[in-house]
Amino acid sequence: MKTTILGYPRIGAQRELKKACEAYWKKTITKKELLKTAKTLKKQNWLIQKELGIDLIPSNDFSLYDQVLDTCLSVGCIPQRYKSIEQTNDLELYFAMARGLQNDDIDVTAMEMTKWFDTNYHYIVPEFEKNQSFAYYSNKITEEFKEALALGIKTKPVLIGPVTFLLLGKEKESGFHRIDLLNRLLPVYLEIIEDLIDLGVEYIQFDEPCLALNLSDKERAAITTTYNAIHNKFPKLKIFLANYFDCYGDNLETALKLPIDTLHLDLVRCHLQLDDILNSKYFNNHIKLSLGLIDGRNIWKNNFEDSLNVVQKALKKLPPENLWISASCSLLHTPYDLELEKNLNSEIKQWLAFSKQKLEEISTIRNLCLTENEPYLSLYEENKLANLNRKTSKLIHNSKVKERVSNLKDTDSHRTHSFDIRQAKQKEALNFPLFPTTTIGSFPQTKTVRSWRLKHRKGELSNENYEILIAKEIEDSIRFQENIGLDVLVHGEFERNDMVEYFGEKLDGFAFSEFGWVQSYGSRCVKPPILFGDVSRNTPMTVYWSEYAQSLTQKPLKGMLTGPVTILQWSFVRNDQPRETTCNQIALAIRDEVIELEKHGLKIIQIDEPAIREGLPLRKEEWPNYLNWAVKAFRISASGVKDETQIHTHMCYSEFNDIIASIADMDADVITIETSRSEMELLDAFVNFKYPNEIGPGVYDIHSPRVPTLEEIEKLLSKAKQVLPKEHIWVNPDCGLKTRDWPETKRALENIVNAAKKLRQQEIELV
Ligand SMILES: Nc1nc2c(c(=O)[nH]1)N[C@@H](CNc1ccc(C(=O)N[C@@H](CCC(=O)N[C@@H](CCC(=O)N[C@@H](CCC(=O)O)C(=O)O)C(=O)O)C(=O)O)cc1)CN2
Ligand code: MET
Ligand SMILES: [Zn+2]
């Protein structure tokens, strides 16, 4: 019985890769220095896995930006607009595809970015043309294998499987389906594999998480074609096929019939599938199983007793040499090392395992299965105790909270009156012009603002002085917003480290780490708070700064909250009760905050739910149940206020078509959404559905430093005006401005306000 993992985090325990990439982009370090940092990180990752007892260690799980982008370069899937960069500098090309590039000679936009399945990790979306050709282009995969080999480690290179690669991409023109490109793509994979085999590779891991989705017959056939072709050409190669994040489901028969060496199972997300497989008539016991027992998506300690039971079950049908002990998915989604945490409550800390601790758990489980397992029995006992302690801890349970959730009534998730009635009252109370303008909440989180927070945390800046600085920043932003003439102002979120972590820090039932960083996209990281117990709000969270900001202006100020589903989705959440229950607890806490903001004079409150789409289960059968409780949780948070109080919500990065009815069902008075990059295409869902409430389609792509011109914004707005009732249209950016700098923010927002003014003028001239 051996151990393996599917992938390891790569950002560095101290976020070394983030810092190096950002320095390289600013040209304060050279390409050579960046690559040196990368090399050191890879080496550290391999050596720690070796030291902690991982037998089959992955390579090519490292990436300077994103593994799907890496795959694009491996197979030469480079959109036309980058061809002029291609010749000059490989890193420049790579980062241009990731982030766009603007200089005297070149002006190219970035490739699209979207969520990796149901995670908060974003990948770069491959672009395909009808006549797409592929060619073996970058040699990253072989180079990394050689790098590890030089350290004495023969790795298992990780490749995103060709079918998943195609399905994750997008057709950039009509008249074909991307899956039809398989016959062109496969030969390139075969070339790469041949190179790897020449270098001595024994195992290759093919990640095909598309197997967790509802696949068509054609897509399933593509899986069969692919792995038959690879096996026929390289019969000695050991194919390690990995699906994760959900069951094989309908795709199980296809998977079991493949000529592969190992099938990997995510037993955390789908623990019943082991029985399905062992009992399947297609199962043959020559196949090896990789048991994904350790949770790669969450930070709770494994329960060894349960895991050993699973292994025993497998051992009834398979010899031990046909089993791998592993984690459910790549450890990319969990932080580096729990040992770095010096300030975590020690009771809570003993319940947790970060990536490094998960490596230890994997080898301990294997060691406990050995006949000579005595040296490890104390670890087993320790694990049992920690799990028992977590079950019974006083820190977790709050009977008042449980009672409040179980006493929720239907009326708690309904506003007093329907939208029409509310809208009329709000129009009277707020008296906005046509096409009111607003922003999504955050203003630039500059290095300076972040450095105040760091100093404050370290005790180098007193509470009082920190607050003086934040207050001044808020005041400046209010004056700026008034000057350019925005209709609904925001305070700017300067006091927040992150829109979820900030609330985690204020709510009971959450703990937070110091170094628990997880990559979100490229160099951007998040530090998800740890939701370990019943959630309650014992103190106002945003009232102080919102009330202060409102006191500075006659214009209405929009209070800014993160919604229950997003807090749930972007935290490390307890796994001892249904997510629905936890979400309702958060919803009640947010509801109390909404009511309190109203009490303190705020007439408009935004409850952000950017993660509601991402939280959708991977399989459609499970959508209705999820949407039902998620929408209800939002409504619970929003329904405690009077008709006159205007509730906004905001979503970004979303394909809205599938779930538009549920979005409407959230019944927010106003929704602001991301649409600018798709030229308002995303608005179609709202139009086709006749979305009943007010809506602000984004007119400024905040993911790019580019400033949209007045004309561009006008064009987008006139598109919106053609399809939406003009009384329903708001004018705003796609998302918050925290990742932007002030100069471009100011120019862009001025253009936005002026575009709205021009639109109003046109309306007056029309009558
Ligand atoms: N949780 C979450 N998920 C999300 C989003 C989001 O906003 N939050 N937005 C979408 C896109 N994803 C994003 C993820 C991260 C960031 C982001 O800006 N992250 C920051 C960190 C934000 C943060 O927590 N900041 C802290 C700590 C900042 C820090 O690194 N401080 C330095 C010191 C200051 C400095 O020199 O910069 C340090 O500790 O060493 C703070 O402001 O207090 C980063 O990686 O740079 C943006 C978007 C989807 N998912
Ligand atoms: C990822 S959605 C962000 C919403 C938040 N209010 C902001 O403006 O940053
Ligand atoms: Zn957003």
Automatic annotation (TrEMBL):
Q: Which UniProt keywords apply?
A: Amino-acid biosynthesis, Metal-binding, Methionine biosynthesis, Methyltransferase, Repeat, Transferase, Zinc
The residues listed in the UniProt record as binding Zn(2+) 1, with positions renumbered to this chain, are: H650, C652, D665, E674, C735
Q: How is the cofactor bound?
A: Binds 1 zinc ion per subunit. Binds 2 Zn(2+) ions per subunit.
**Locate the Cobalamin-independent methionine synthase MetE N-terminal domain: which residues?**
3-317
Q: Which reaction does it catalyse?
A: 5-methyltetrahydropteroyltri-L-glutamate + L-homocysteine = tetrahydropteroyltri-L-glutamate + L-methionine
Identify the residues that bind Zn(2+).
H650, C652, E674, C735
| Pathway the protein contributes to | Amino-acid biosynthesis; L-methionine biosynthesis via de novo pathway; L-methionine from L-homocysteine (MetE route): step 1/1
Residues binding 5-methyltetrahydropteroyltri-L-glutamate are R15, E16, L17, K18, K115, N120, R524, C525, W570, E614
Q: Gene3D superfamilies from the entry?
A: 3.20.20.210
- Which positions are annotated as binding L-homocysteine? I440, G441, S442, E493, D608
Q: What does this protein do?
A: Catalyzes the transfer of a methyl group from 5-methyltetrahydrofolate to homocysteine resulting in methionine formation.
What sequence ranges are listed for the domain Cobalamin-independent methionine synthase MetE C-terminal/archaeal? 435-757
Q: State the organism of origin.
A: Aestuariibaculum sediminum
| Binding-site residues for L-methionine, renumbered to this chain | I440, G441, S442, E493, D608
Q: Which family does it belong to?
A: Belongs to the vitamin-B12 independent methionine synthase family.
Please give a single GO biological process term from the UniProt record. L-methionine biosynthetic process
- Coiled coil region boundaries: none
Q: Name one GO molecular function term.
A: zinc ion binding
The protein's name: 5-methyltetrahydropteroyltriglutamate--homocysteine methyltransferase
Matching InterPro entries: Cbl-indep_Met_Synth_N (IPR013215), Cobalamin-indep_Met_synthase (IPR006276), Met_Synth_C/arc (IPR002629), UROD/MetE-like_sf (IPR038071)
> Enzyme group, top EC level?
transferase
Active-site residues (renumbered): H703 (proton donor)
Q: Which co-factor is required?
A: Zn(2+)
